[in-house]
Amino acid sequence: MHRQRIGVPALAGFFAFGTLMSGLSFLALLLPSSPLSSIWRLNPDAHANLLLLGWWAVLLMALVSLACGLSAFGLFRYRRWGYWLAVGILATNAVGDLFGAILRSDPRTLIGVPIVALLIALLARRHVRGMFK
Considering Cα of 105, then 106, then 111, then 116, what sign does the dihedral take? Predict the structure, then answer.
């Protein structure tokens, strides 16, 4: 029984981490001359692409952080809405990875597709779906 229940909390932890990282990105975009701006050294291409969006990037990162946080909470609490929010976020991420590979000719983004497929497969298992009320 313990092995069956480890996947959902681990996925919730993954979403909690996503909340922190997207929240950090939100703050770094909102406060561009703060010490937080040094995080963009990790991925300068992402920073350049987000800057092209202007204030929409700030809003996008705020929404991503909120969605990840809600999903983490819903998964930790085994709520059906948390389950569907997680599936929706994962599916959106897979579509984004596919478009990234096609539109930017960057096949590296495709690494996310099988990872997302495995995570959705975990959530789609009958006994996992049954954990959510």
Answer: negative
